[in-house]
Design brief:
alpha+beta; Dna-directed Rna Polymerases I, Ii, And Iii 27 Kd Polypeptide, Chain: A, domain 1; 6-stranded mixed β-sheet; 4-stranded antiparallel β-sheet; Rossmann fold
C-alpha cells in the first residue's frame, strides 16, 4: 500500500471486530481484521458517516434539556492566544484574559461560503440569535449549546464494533469463505465516494464491494483471477439486481475462448465449466487430487431430501469410453444419483453408448439419465444437465436488492 499510494498518504488503521471471542492457547485471541485507509493525495473526498448514538452516551453527555430538546455545553474557545479577530473581545468577554481564543462552531443556518464572509464576532452574533449560546456569570466565557440530533448520529470511528460478522447461517452468506458483511463495505463506499463515482475492487472475491457499490448507485469495476469468483459474482449480481447490465472480460465467450483457457490453465477451465452448470467446486476449488470429482450439483428429488450429481470436466483434445466408466465408478462410490461428464472435445460413439447403458434414475418427477454427457458447445447453446429440483448447493442465492436503498448507517 505504501508503494502504491505513498506512505505519506496513509490516513487510518481501522479495526473491525469480527468475532466476540477466539480460543487461542498461547496468544491473545485474534478477534479483529485490519482495514488500511489510504488516499491518492492530500485532496480527497470524505463523507461524514453517522452511527446511531449509544443510549449511555446520550445520558452522560446530553445532561441538559429545554423546550428544544436535550443539549450539551461545548466550548466557544480554543487553547492559546491568537492575534487577529479570534483574539478580540465580544460582548464584554475577552478570551485572551483566560489564555484562549475564539473557536466558533458552524452556524446551522449558514452555508460554508456564507460563514467565510463573516467576521468571528458576526458568527458569534449569529449563533446567539439562534439561541445556541449559554451565558454564565458576568465576565465568564459563554458556552455553545449543541442540541442532540438522533438523525445526525455519532461520527464513525476507527474501531468498528456495531457491524456483526456473518454467522454460518446468516441469510446474507453465500458460502464464500472470506465473505464480509455488506454493511461494512457500504460504510466504506459511502465514506469515500458519491453517487456516480467509480469504485474499484482489484481483489473482489465474492463481490461484496461491487454489490455495495451498485446498491448505492456507484459505477464499479471488480477484478479477480479465479473463474470461481467471477462466476459467483455474476450469480450474486443477477440474483440481487434482476435485469442488471454489466460486461465480463477475460472469460470464454465461445469455443475458441474455451480452448484457449483449457490450454493455459486446466484447473481454471474446470472451475469455469463447472460454474456453467451451477456445480459447487470440489473441496472449495482448491488444487489437489480430485478423486475423479471436479464439482457437485445438489438437487432435491422429492423437494425435501438432498441428493447429488458428480461432475467431471475434461478439457483435452481426446476423450474415450474409459472416462465414462470411471465416472460411473465414482458415482457408485460416492452414493450419488447422477454423473455429468462435461467435455471440450466431441464424445465418441462408444462413450454415448456406455452412458445409455447406465440406465435411468427414477423419481416422482420422472426419469433422468444416470450418466449425462454435455459438450462445451452444448453449454454455450444453453443446455443444462437434466435433474429434478436443482438446488444451488453451497453458493446460496443473494437476496434481491433495491438499488439506491437505504443502508444501515445514518446519512450525515
Amino acid at each position: 500500500m505504501d508503494s502504491v499510494f505513498g506512505k505519506q498518504n496513509f490516513r487510518n488503521e481501522i479495526i473491525w471486530k469480527r468475532t466476540s471471542s477466539h480460543n487461542s492457547a498461547k496468544r491473545w485471541g485474534p478477534v479483529h481484521d485490519v482495514i488500511l485507509f489510504y488516499t491518492k493525495s492530500d485532496s480527497y473526498l470524505w463523507n461524514r458517516i453517522g452511527q446511531p448514538y449509544d443510549e449511555s452516551y446520550v445520558a452522560e453527555f446530553y445532561r441538559y434539556e429545554d423546550s428544544r430538546g436535550k443539549f450539551q455545553l461545548g466550548d466557544l474557545t480554543g487553547a492559546g492566544t491568537r492575534a487577529g479577530e479570534s483574539g478580540l473581545p465580544w460582548r464584554g468577554v475577552n478570551p485572551t484574559d483566560a489564555g484562549r481564543h475564539w473557536a466558533v462552531p458552524a452556524i446551522p443556518t449558514h452555508s460554508a461560503e456564507a460563514i467565510q464572509s463573516l467576521t468571528v464576532q458576526q458568527r458569534l452574533d449569529a449563533l446567539d440569535e439562534l439561541g445556541l449560546i449559554s451565558w454564565p456569570k458576568k465576565g465568564e466565557i459563554p458556552r455553545f449549546r449543541r442540541y442532540f440530533d438522533p438523525q445526525r448520529g455519532a461520527p464513525a470511528q476507527d474501531i468498528v464494533t456495531d457491524i456483526a460478522p456473518l454467522s454460518p447461517h446468516a441469510k446474507e452468506r453465500l458460502g464464500y469463505p472470506t465473505q464480509k458483511p455488506l454493511a461494512l463495505l457500504e460504510r466504506i463506499v459511502r465514506a469515500s465516494s458519491n453517487e456516480g463515482d467509480l469504485v474499484l475492487d482489484p481483489f473482489c472475491g465474492c463481490g461484496t464491494t461491487i454489490h455495495a457499490a451498485h446498491k448505492l448507485n456507484r459505477q464499479w469495476i471488480g477484478i479477480d483471477i479465479t473463474h470461481l469468483a467471477i462466476s459467483l459474482i455474476e450469480k450474486r449480481l443477477n440474483d440481487a439486481f434482476p435485469g442488471i447490465h454489466y460486461t465480463v472480460h477475460g472469460t470464454p465467450k465461445d469455443l475458441e475462448g474455451a480452448r484457449d483457457l483449457a490450454a493455459r490453465d486446466k484447473h481454471e477451465f474446470q472451475l469455469w465449466a463447472g460454474a456453467r452448470v451451477n456445480a459447487v467446486p470440489f473441496r472449495g476449488g482448491k488444487k489437489g487430487a480430485d478423486s475423479g470429482i471436479d464439482g457437485l450439483i445438489y438437487f432435491k428429488p422429492d423437494s425435501k431430501s438432498t441428493e447429488k450429481a458428480i461432475v467431471s470436466v475434461k478439457g483435452g483434445d481426446n476423450v474415450n469410453v474409459a472416462m465414462i466408466r470411471d465416472l460411473a465408478h465414482v458415482v457408485d462410490r460416492e452414493n450419488a444419483k447422477v454423473g455429468v461428464f462435461i467435455t471440450l472435445a466431441e464424445p465418441t460413439g462408444p462413450m454415448k453408448t456406455e452412458a445409455i447403458k447406465a440406465g435411468m434414475y427414477e423419481t416422482q418427477f420422472g426419469k433422468f439419465p444416470k450418466l449425462q454427457i454435455l459438450t462445451i458447445a452444448d453449454l454455450f447453446d444453453g443446455r443444462q444437465p437434466k435433474l429434478p429440483w436443482a438446488d444451488p448447493g453451497a453458493f446460496k442465492k443473494a437476496g434481491r436488492e433495491i438499488e439506491g436503498g437505504s443502508p444501515g448507517d445514518l446519512p450525515f
